UniProtKB/TrEMBL annotation:
Residues 715-724 have a biased composition (Basic residues). Minus-end microtubule-dependent motor protein. Involved in apically targeted transport. Required for zonula adherens maintenance. This is Kinesin-like protein. Its main location: other. Pfam families: Kinesin.
Length: 724
């Protein structure tokens, strides 16, 4: 081991010498010679590492075999024998420990038996002492009795002659004597039993002592054998160590010779090391200057990239501006094409999330919008996104004025003699009534449309003379009712005009002439009072009927006598609902069934118009029959689909948007203007005369004195003048 340490120190000193030579070497050489020396240096390094590895293995396993040594087989046998002897020593040690444990257990048992034997002997001695005392007492008693027996016999005889008392005492003494004799016999029997027990205890003690002696002899014999085996094993071990040490010395000499060769090779590597040192110094100088070159290159590349990014951003902004301009032009052309084809225009409006929607996952927003295209709406239904394209989509932040601007052009065309129909569609609670009627502070399409008509009429007052009349009706449980009539519950029917033009009108429908915004507010208040609304689980004020506001604009050109007639139908459809969600029962259930039936009939009409069928089932429902003029090609029609954005209503929202897409694909043809010289058509005469008769009769009825207080409808009627 000392030689191994010395050899390691020599290797360390040689490595230091090599490093010193590397630092002192200088000069240059040819390129090929340098490569050859580098290869030779690498080979020598590998040989040095191999030698160090073998040295470490020799240090770690001094008794291991040497590859190629002639004593390797003998060494292997010795190692096997040594391992076998070590196993036998381990087994013998185990057996010795087991025997020691067994001897210890038997010794403990023997000590316990001896203690028990001593206790038994002590108890037997005490018992023998007690029995001997009792036996002595018994012998003494018997001796005393035998000594006194003749006088007793004599006394007994004497007593037998003399007295009965003496006789009784004699019998008692005899009985006591008999009892004492029995006790003596019993004590003798007990004494014999105790002597037998004592003899058996002596025999058991002798047997246990014999076993202990046998165990001790076996233990001594096993201990002697173990000592002999351990001594032989120790001798074998020392012999094997000496042989291994001799082999290690031989191998160490071979290592020394290899180290001498390595030292010689290291001396030949000095020129190559000088060349490598010079190359290394040159590379170090280049590496020191590399960060500056890299920073300069990075700076120039960053500048070029920044300039390219700015150019790309400017190009993107220009392309985005052009794209939006083209999108607006495309939409304008599309709207013009839709107008020429007569397609039903469809706009969608999403109501905001309210407190009535509740909280939690079901109240999360499931509707998103396209930031670059206001005609696209996205719906997340059951985890899958669904997109729809309509003519216009209004977000929850859109105002009533924004929605009205989209339909403003349609409404003004009513003054020019066109028929216009705007109807709101959607599930209950989606905001249809709010969009159509609004609130007093923020009115909807109905009131804004009439205000716009009044404004247009005033602008054309110098050339045209216009008359605006208003009618309001509702379809409740498939029954058409007049909301402005004296008897709102009276049933009305839809008739064909008898002039053969195919136009429809409603006989008996009340028509009021309005001349100002105040008249409009009074009509709306009266009609809203008579409309049917009820509470459901989905909407606190759910519309239970389809409401229709019919605005008729008749105009006369003062210079040419040209007469025009335009109608504006503003329809607030009742909300579609699922009975399970709305909780409708009784009359509410019957209302829901009629509402769903009429909306289903509207869907059938749309499907027939879309597929261009020869027969369109307008008469399947009062709603579709009344809207026949608006859906049959003589009208400009627009549908406002109202949708709810919350997660729990995604099924209804999906159905409404799909229906809106189907409606958007229907082509009704271009609308026709109703204008003629001289007089109105027979249909308008019938409507006008009917309205005049109705309003005159109502005016006469309210002008007559009444015995009681007038009702609210009557007071409102007196404020409105009938059309002339």
């Amino acid at each position: 081991m000392v030689e191994v340490e010395n050899l390691k120190e020599k290797l360390i000193s040689q490595a230091q010498e090599v490093s010193r030579l590397r630092s002192e070497l200088g000069g240059t050489d040819l390129e090929k010679h340098r490569d050859r020396l580098m290869v030779e240096n690498e080979r020598l390094r590998q040989e040095l590492r191999h030698c160090e590895t073998e040295l470490q293995e020799l240090r770690a396993q001094p008794a291991g075999p040497c590859p190629g040594c002639e004593h390797s087989q003998e060494s292997t046998q010795l190692r096997d024998k040594l391992s076998q002897l070590q196993l036998e020593v381990a087994e013998n040690k185990g057996m010795l420990s087991e025997l020691n444990l067994e001897v210890q257990q038997k010794t403990d048992r023997l000590a316990e038996v001896e203690l028990r034997l001593k206790d038994c002997l002590a108890e037997k001695a005490q018992e023998e002492e007690r029995l001997s005392r009792r036996l002595r007492d018994s012998h003494e008693t018997i001796a005393s009795l035998r000594a006194q027996s003749p006088p007793v016999k004599y006394v007994i005889k004497t007593v037998e002659v003399e007295s009965s008392k003496t006789k009784q005492a004699l019998s008692e003494s005899q009985a006591r004597n008999q009892h004492l004799q029995e006790q003596v016999a019993m004590q003798r029997q007990v004494l014999k039993e105790m002597e037998q027990q004592l003899q058996s205890s002596h025999q058991l003690t002798v047997q246990l002592r014999a076993q202990i002696a046998m165990y001790e002899s076996e233990l001594e014999r096993a201990h002697g054998q173990m000592l002999e085996e351990m001594q032989s094993l120790e001798e074998d071990k020392n012999r094997a160590i000496e042989e291994a040490f001799a082999r290690a010395q031989v191998e160490m000499k071979a290592v020394h010779e290899n180290l001498a060769g390595v030292r010689t090779n290291l001396l030949t590597l000095q020129p190559a090391l000088r060349t490598l040192t010079n190359d290394y110094n040159g590379l170090k100088r280049q590496v020191r200057g590399f960060p500056l070159l890299l920073q300069e290159a990075l700076r120039s590349v960053k500048a070029e990239i920044g300039q390219a990014i700015e150019e790309v951003n400017s190009n993107n902004q220009e392309l985005l501006r052009k794209y939006r301009r083209e999108l607006q032009l495309r939409k304008k052309c599309h709207n013009e094409l839709v107008r020429l084809k007569g397609n039903i225009r469809v706009i969608a409006r999403v109501r905001p999330v309210t407190k009535e929607d509740g909280e939690g996952p079901e109240a999360t927003n499931a509707v998103t919008f396209d930031p670059d295209d206001d005609s696209i709406i996205h719906l997340l239904h059951k985890g899958k996104p669904v997109s729809f394209e309509l003519d216009k989509v209004f977000s929850p932040w859109a105002s009533q004025q924004d929605v009205f601007q989209e339909v403003q052009a349609l409404i003004t065309s009513c003054i020019d003699g066109f028929n216009v129909c705007i109807f709101a569609y959607g599930q209950t609670g989606a905001g249809k009534t709010y969009t159509m009627e609004g609130t007093p502070e923020d009115p909807g399409i109905n009131q804004r449309a009439l205000q716009l008509l009044f404004s247009e009429v005033q602008d054309k007052a110098s050339d045209w003379e216009y008359t605006i009349t208003v009618s309001a009706a509702e379809i409740y449980n498939e029954v058409l009712r007049d909301l402005l009539g004296r008897e709102p519950q009276e049933k009305l029917e839809i008739r064909l005009c008898p002039d053969g033009s195919g136009q429809l009108y409603v006989p008996g429908l009340t028509e009021f002439q309005v001349q100002s915004v105040d008249d409009i507010n009074k009509v709306f208040e009266f009609g809203h009072t008579n409309r049917t609304t009820e509470f459901t689980n989905l909407n606190e004020h759910s519309s239970r009927s389809h409401a229709l506001l019919i605005v008729t604009v008749r105009g006369v050109d003062c210079s040419t006598g040209l007469r025009t007639t335009g109608k504006l139908n503003l329809v607030d459809l009742a909300g579609s609902e699922r009975v399970g969600k709305s909780g409708a029962e009784g009359s509410r259930l019957r209302e829901a069934q009629h509402i769903n039936k009429s909306l289903s009939a509207l869907g059938d009409v749309i499907a027939a118009l879309r597929s261009r069928q020869g027969h369109v089932p307008f008469r399947n429902s009062k709603l579709t029959y009344l809207l026949q003029d608006s859906l049959s090609g003589d009208s400009k029609t627009l549908m406002v689909v109202q949708v709810s954005p919350v997660e729990k209503n995604t099924s209804e929202t999906l159905y409404s948007l799909k229906f809106a897409e189907r409606v958007r694909s229907v082509e009704l043809g271009p609308g026709s203007r109703r204008a003629e010289l001289g007089s109105w058509s027979s249909q308008e005469h019938l409507e006008w005369e009917s309205a005049c008769q109705t309003t005159q009769s109502s005016a006469r009825a309210h002008s007559a004195p009444s015995s009681g207080t007038s009702s609210r409808p009557g007071s409102i009627r007196r404020k409105l003048q009938p059309s002339a």
